[in-house]
Design a protein that fits this description.
By secondary structure, the chain is an alpha+beta fold. It has five domains: 11-65, no CATH class; 70-100; 101-198 and 222-255, no CATH class; 262-387, Roll (Ubiquitin-like (UB roll)), CATH 3.10.20; 393-511, L,D-transpeptidase catalytic domain-like (Beta Barrel). The chain is built from 13 helices and 29 strands. Helix 3 packs across helix 5 (152-162) and helix 10 (315-323) crosses helix 12 (365-374). The protein is rod-shaped and about 150 Å long. The N and C termini lie far apart (184 Å).
Length: 512
C-alpha cells in the first residue's frame, strides 16, 4: 500500500536503500521496547511508523525535518547576541573618544583643534602656522620661510589635559595662545633677503700682535630687525585665527658673534702664554722663546659659529727652535763646594753644584708643542736625563806664625797661599790661641784713645776676637814682615780682599 498522492514520487525512492532499512530497524527496535517513536529531527511522530499489515512489502514515504540548529528560536538568540556586541563596541569607542579627544571649541593660536587627539592636533597647528602667509613691512612670505616655531606637542598635550572631551565645562573655552619663537639664523636670513635696508653688518672684535704683545680691538655693533618683538607681534596676529597676518618690524642693535669682552679675554690668555712660553726642564724655563718668535708660530682665528677664537701653531716653524735645543740643554755636572770647619760644620756653600743634563729624542717635539699651544699651554717639558752633581767639602782655616810674620791659608790640611804680615808691637802684641772669624766689615775708620790714633778707610776688615783685633788691609806702610800694629794683623790691601772673600764667618784661626 502506497501513502500519499499517486502522482508524487515517494521520498524513499530518492534515498539509498541501506539508509531506509537502517532507519526502519531502529524504529522497530524502539517499538519492541515500548518507546514513543518520533522523528529524530522534528521530535514529532514519525511518518509511516503506525502499525500496518506485515504482509505489505512496499514502505511508505519518510518525512525529514530540518536539524534543531536551523529552527526559528536559535536564530533569534544569535541575532540578539550580535546586537549586544555592537552596542558594547559603541560604548567603548564613545568612552575612548571622551578620554582621548580635545574638547570642542578649543583653539590654539587661532587653529581649531576640538574633537582631535593631541598628536593630530599638534600636526594641524604646526602645519597651519607654517602655511600662514605673513606680511612683514609689506614683504610676503610663509611662516615656514620666516622660521616660525611653536611647541605644538606641548600645547596640544596641555590642551588635552586641561580640556578633555568628557569635561563639558571646558567646551568652547577661551582661545589658547601659542608662544611663538623664531629660528634666529633662518629668520635673519629671510628678512635680510627681503628687507636689506633694515640691516647693517656688525664687525667682530679682533686680537692682533704689536710691539711684543697681543692687543684686543673692540667690536662694532650693527643694526638688525628685533626678532623678539616680531615674534610677539606674530603671536598676537595668529591668535585672531587669520590665514594672512601683517606685522611691522622694529630695529635693534646687532651684536657681532665675537664680542669685545671675548677679545679682551683672548688678549689676556695670549699674553700670559708669551710670558711663559719656552722649553722646560722640570720647573726651569731652560730655553725661553722671545715674544716675536712665539707670535710667528701662532695664528689666532676668529670663529663666528662659536663666538670665540681658535689658536693654531705651525710645527715647521717650531722645528727650527727644536733643532737648537741640544746645544742649549746639554751640560756636564758641576760639583757643589761647601766650606766647613774642623768638625765638618758647613760654614758657607761656595757653589750649589749643578746636575748634568742630556736631552733625549727630539722627534715629534715640534708637533707635540704645536698641539699644546693650540690648547693654551705654552710650557713644554723636555725629555732630559740628569746626572747628579757630587758635593765637595773644603775644610779651611787661617794660620798666623808670629815668629816668621807670615799668614797661611790652609785648605784640607794644605797651604794654598802664604804672605808676609805685620802683627802687633811689643806694647800691643797680637794675641795667640784658637779663634774664629765672626764679623766682616767692608770698610771702616779705626781709632784708639789709648794709643791715640784715628785711621780712616780701613778696608776688608775681619774681627777674630772680642778685643777688637782683626785682619785688615794696610795702606799707610809697606813694612810687612815686621810688627807694626796695635794687635791687628795687617797685610797688603789686595791680599786682605782675597782673605776676606775666602773666609766665611766661623772660619777657624790659629795664631802662634
Amino acid at each position: 500500500m502506497v501513502r500519499g498522492s499517486a502522482a508524487r514520487e515517494p521520498r524513499w525512492r530518492n534515498e539509498p536503500r541501506n539508509y531506509i532499512l537502517s532507519r526502519r530497524f531502529a524504529q522497530w527496535g524502539k517499538r519492541a521496547n515500548g518507546d514513543d517513536v518520533t522523528d529524530q529531527l522534528t521530535r514529532e511522530a514519525a511518518v509511516g511508523d503506525a502499525p500496518r499489515d506485515l504482509g505489505t512489502t512496499e514502505p511508505g514515504p519518510v518525512r525529514v525535518s530540518p536539524p534543531p540548529s536551523q529552527t526559528t528560536r536559535p536564530r533569534r538568540r544569535r541575532r540578539f547576541l550580535w546586537l549586544w556586541i555592537a552596542l558594547g563596541v559603541l560604548v567603548v569607542l564613545a568612552g575612548a573618544a571622551l578620554t582621548l579627544l580635545i574638547a570642542p571649541g578649543t583653539t590654539i593660536a587661532g587653529v581649531p583643534v576640538g574633537g582631535l587627539p593631541p598628536s593630530v592636533a599638534a600636526n594641524v597647528v604646526s602645519q597651519r602656522l607654517a602655511d600662514t602667509t605673513v606680511s612683514v613691512n609689506g614683504a610676503r612670505m610663509t611662516g615656514r620661510e620666516l622660521g616660525v616655531e611653536v611647541d605644538a606637542d606641548a600645547l596640544t598635550s596641555r590642551a588635552h589635559s586641561d580640556r578633555p572631551l568628557w569635561n563639558i565645562g571646558t567646551w568652547f573655552g577661551s582661545p589658547i595662545d601659542a608662544p611663538v619663537t623664531l629660528e634666529p639664523g633662518k629668520t635673519d636670513r629671510a628678512l635680510q633677503h627681503a628687507l636689506p635696508a633694515l640691516y647693517t653688518r656688525a664687525q667682530d672684535a679682533t686680537v692682533t700682535f704689536a710691539n711684543g704683545r697681543y692687543v684686543a680691538e673692540p667690536a662694532v655693533p650693527g643694526v638688525r630687525v628685533d626678532t623678539r618683538a616680531l615674534a610677539q607681534a606674530l603671536q598676537q596676529a595668529y591668535t585672531r585665527g587669520l590665514d594672512h597676518v601683517a606685522v611691522r618690524t622694529t630695529k635693534t642693535e646687532a651684536l657681532p658673534p665675537i664680542s669685545t669682552d671675548t677679545a679682551k679675554g683672548m688678549e689676556v690668555k695670549l699674553n700670559a702664554m708669551l710670558a711663559a712660553i719656552g722649553f722646560y726642564v722640570g720647573t726651569e724655563r731652560t730655553v725661553p722663546v722671545a715674544p716675536e718668535v712665539a707670535s710667528s708660530w701662532l695664528t689666532v682665528t676668529p670663529e663666528d659659529k662659536t663666538g670665540s677664537f681658535a689658536i693654531a701653531a705651525d710645527p715647521a716653524k717650531i722645528q727650527t727652535a727644536v733643532d737648537a735645543l741640544p746645544g742649549e740643554v746639554n751640560r756636564p755636572a758641576v760639583n757643589a763646594e761647601n766650606i766647613v770647619d774642623s768638625t765638618g760644620k758647613v760654614l758657607r756653600t761656595d757653589s750649589a753644584g749643578q746636575p748634568g743634563r742630556a736631552l733625549g729624542k727630539t722627534g715629534g717635539i715640534a708637533r707635540s708643542f704645536a698641539t699644546q699651544l693650540s690648547q693654551g699651554n705654552a710650557e713644554y717639558r723636555l725629555p732630559v736625563t740628569e746626572t747628579p752633581a757630587p758635593t765637595t767639602n773644603l775644610q779651611r782655616s787661617i794660620d798666623v806664625d808670629l815668629s816668621t810674620q807670615r799668614l797661611s791659608m790652609i785648605q784640607n790640611g794644605a797651604v794654598v797661599d802664604s804672605w808676609a804680615i805685620s802683627s802687633g808691637l811689643p806694647i800691643a802684641p797680637t794675641p795667640t790661641g784658637h779663634f774664629t772669624v765672626h764679623v766682616h766689615i767692608r770698610e771702616q775708620t779705626m781709632s784708639s784713645t789709648q794709643y791715640g790714633y784715628v785711621v780712616p778707610n780701613v778696608q776688608w776688615v775681619m774681627y777674630f776676637d772680642g778685643n777688637g783685633d782683626a785682619f785688615h788691609g794696610v795702606y799707610w806702610h809697606d813694612n810687612f814682615g815686621h810688627p807694626m800694629s796695635h794687635g791687628c794683623v795687617g797685610m797688603p790691601i789686595d791680599l786682605a780682599e782675597r782673605l776676606y772673600e775666602w773666609s766665611p764667618d766661623g772660619l777657624e784661626v790659629y795664631i802662634h
